[in-house]
Amino acid sequence: MPIAADPAASYGQPQTFLARLQQMPELKTAGLWPAQIKAIQNLEVSLKENRPRALIQMATGSGKTFTAINFIYRLIKFAGARRVLFLVDRGNLGRQTLKEFQQYVSPYNNFKFSEEYIVQHMTSNVFDTMARVSICTIQRLFSMLKGRELPEEMEDSIELGSLFKESEPIEYNPGFPIGSFDIIVTDECHRSIYNLWRQVLEYFDAYLIGLTATPSKQTFGFFNKNLVMEYGHPQAVADGVNVNYDVYRIKTAITEQGSAVEAGYYVDKRDRETREVRWEQLDDEVSYEAKQLDRDVVSVDQIRTVIRTFRDKLFTEIFPNRTEVPKTLIFAKDDSHAEDIVKIVREEFGKGNEFAQKITYRTTGAKPEDLIAAFRNSYFPRIAVTVDMIATGTDIKACECVFFMRSVKSRAYFEQMKGRGVRIINDNDLQAVTPDAVTKDHFVIVDALGVCEMDQTDSLPMERKKNVGFEKLLQAVAFGNAEIDVVSSVAARLARMEKKLTTDEQLQVSKLLGGKSLKDLTGDLVEALDPDKHLSHAQKSFGVSEPDDKQLRQMAAQVIGAAVKPLCNPELRELLFAIKKKNEQIIDTVSTDTLIFSGFSEEKARGVVESFEQFIEANKDEITALQVLYSKPFKQRLRFADVQDLAEKLVAQVEQLQIYQTHPQGWEKRVPDELWAAYQKLQAGKVRGAAANHILTDLVSLVRFAMHQESELVPFPEKVQVNFTAWIEQQQASGKSFTAEQRQWLEMIRDHIAANLQIETDDFDYAPFAQAGGIGRVWQVFGDDLNAILEELNQTLAA
């Protein structure tokens, strides 16, 4: 797939993209993390091999966008890429990406990216053909390819794509030739490869590069399993690119069990949309479960008890010795819940409106992007409450506390939400917004629902279900979804709504429908779904008595499309949604909540440790590594292949072990980290090396500690080092001495055994031994003693 050279480019002679790739100058690494350098280099290798798709998986907060801007700049400047498309799936992410392009300074000439090349942020359906980089939401690009305007509220509705049972096909649009872009970079690609949006990615004849922190199995498949970079949160923490986190758990009685209000009490009943309140005496007892909280029933004291506990424990347990409330991001269930939380936060902390702010798509007054900027860069607000607007991608480096007051079922989404706290920040910038902070070396998750203890599932493309929200259904129809199931659902819900309309609401609807009633619209939708109508229209249009399936589908789409056209009016959709939301919430001001527990969570760690030890006991006679470690004295030497087999068996038991799986490929490398962290949480005084980046052989130390063969959990390489030091001292005591070169070889052998459990003569043909002379040189250095030394070290160091 060669790309035509840009004749205006100043680098070299006009050549094909592939040829110019081979001649690109060496990457200048100033300002780049090692992981970013590796990602760029690996991607360029993939492109040189002419592989059409590549996936970069980097932990949230490790600089995916900055990495992308670096390789985009190089591909434009040195490889002749004429035009690059950078796709995002939310409007605020597009604005954030534009700022990062504008701030990027070239290490090759000190020009800013936007000074050297035109960068367009597409906020309308106008495409600047002179731009070298176009930033666009995938929703807008879909609309442009279909020749439609994009309603403003859909700029942030990536979920719409999942409502299309059969993707509305994108046909060739002469206004957008398939060669319009040479490179397409799609951010948060784990969300944009399904259903409707996949067509957008595959429309253009371009190299496709995906960026994500949380790939699913489907993501790997879409990018042809060409994973050019895998860099997870543990590695990012070890490299100082991310900070780790602690979990602070708050449990209250009503949060766990719900409550009841006896008959006879007066309660408030509040309109969910307008928040107007009326007073009513209960004729019957109202009982509610925990899952109904903040949707059907608002327990004021439940929210207050959680917030008050947070306030009371903030400077004694959560952030001891601090006096300033750290930048805190609270995740609420919906917009109404967010309003309640903000009100109670202000009351409990005794602060004004600027102290706590709601930042959602329905924020009134200040623009959401202005509130995000203030939360990021200014002293106020200290606490931001959101639903999902800041859940992914948005960069808030000063955030030190992520507070969950809503549950999360998707593992990938949960990782993205946690990612709002992982970003590092230099001390001066942190202190500019939080004056009493010293340094950001961790963040705290305050978990008020047990979300960290729940078993999340992998994010899969959502299938259309009967419980899809009314607003999403209306948006899907306006976006061009004319599928019978979707339109039928809309018609059924409008029919139910029509029976509850007030006179004033009927007049409002009729005005927007040009004199028609909601009942008329519902009737038009139902009539448009009639197969006989599709048949008669097809017979007339095509002049045949028996239209084929293709003609029937075409006519059905045309008839249904005409019927749903009124719903393309955003004013009508907004009115219908407002009417639909006019169901009331009961405000429980009667029930008193009580605190059950507050403290840093150990439950998950205890479950991991107990499950791991049960696994060892259950498999001690089945898995070779466990057989060897259980036998005293050892009947055979433990091999690296045995440990690999043990790790694979553990991975197969991930759910039973309650270990938190963050990505599906190469996950056996993560097992020691997860187990080590669990033991550290429960037995900190007996665990060393908790912050280390653990390797597979650390499973040996973990198994021995779990079997109580050793009283202290020490990384396997440290254990090998202790044994090596003892062996050297033993050799010296017996009159044996080693030259400097012999000592260098012995240390390389020690490190190899630490990582691989043993060494054989064949290993000297590989790094790092080969660089020092390989098998030939080691024989010269040790002579006939070599085999005896290797045998002794294999037996002694791994003991």
List the helices and strands and how they pair.
Blueprint (H helix, E strand, L loop, with lengths): L16 H6 L11 H15 L4 E6 L5 H14 L6 E5 L2 H13 L9 H4 L2 E3 L11 E5 H9 L36 E4 L8 H9 L3 E6 L4 H6 L4 E5 L1 H6 L5 E9 H5 L1 E3 L4 E6 L5 E5 L4 E3 L8 E3 H19 L9 E4 L3 H15 L6 E3 L9 H10 L5 E4 L14 E4 L6 H8 L8 H7 L8 E6 L22 H9 L5 H15 L4 H10 L5 H11 L2 H12 L6 H16 L5 H11 L3 E5 L6 E6 L2 H17 L4 H7 L9 H13 L1 H4 L13 H12 L15 H9 L9 H18 L6 H17 L17 H9 L3 H12 L2
Parallel strand pairs: 1-6, 1-7, 2-4, 2-5, 3-4, 5-6, 8-18, 13-19, 14-16, 14-17, 15-16, 17-18
Antiparallel strand pairs: 8-20, 9-12, 10-11, 10-19
Helix pairs in contact: 2-3, 6-7, 11-12, 16-17, 16-22, 17-19, 18-22, 19-21, 20-21, 23-27, 29-30, 30-32
Descriptive labels:
799 residues, alpha/beta, seven-stranded parallel beta sheet, 32 helices, globular
A few lines on this structure:
The protein is globular, with a radius of gyration of 31 Å.
Oligomeric state as shown: single chain
- The helix-and-strand class reads alpha/beta
Spans of at least 5 consecutive residues with low confidence? 1-14, 458-467, 655-669
Helical residues, percent: 40-55%
Structure commentary:
- With 799 residues, the chain is α/β, with parallel strands linked by helices.
- The chain has 32 helices and 20 strands.
- A seven-stranded parallel sheet has the order 3-4-2-5-6-1-7. It has a seven-stranded mixed sheet with strand order 15-16-14-17-18-8-20.
- Strand 10 (266-271) and strand 11 (277-281) form a beta hairpin.
- It is globular.
- The model is unreliable at 1-14, 458-467 and 655-669 (pLDDT under 50).
